[in-house]
Design a protein that fits this description.
single chain, alpha+beta, two-stranded antiparallel sheet, 22% helix
C-alpha cells in the first residue's frame, strides 16, 4: 500500500460528520521539488503518541 492510499484510508476511518470539518490535513508544494504536509492529530489515536519529525 502506498502512503497516499494509507492516508486516505486513515482519514476516512476518522470521519464522523464532525471531525472532518476541521482543518485536518494540509498539503502544499515547496518552492523546490517537494511537498509540505501538516496533519492535525487532535481527536485521533495518534494525538498522544511521540512521532519523529522529518
Amino acid at each position: 500500500m502506498d502512503i497516499l492510499t494509507w492516508l486516505q484510508e486513515w482519514y476516512y476511518l476518522h470521519c464522523d460528520e464532525d471531525w472532518e470539518h476541521q482543518e485536518r490535513i494540509k498539503i502544499t508544494t515547496l518552492d523546490n521539488p517537494g511537498w509540505h504536509i501538516k496533519i492535525n492529530l487532535k481527536e485521533t489515536e495518534l494525538e498522544t503518541k511521540n512521532l519523529m519529525r522529518l
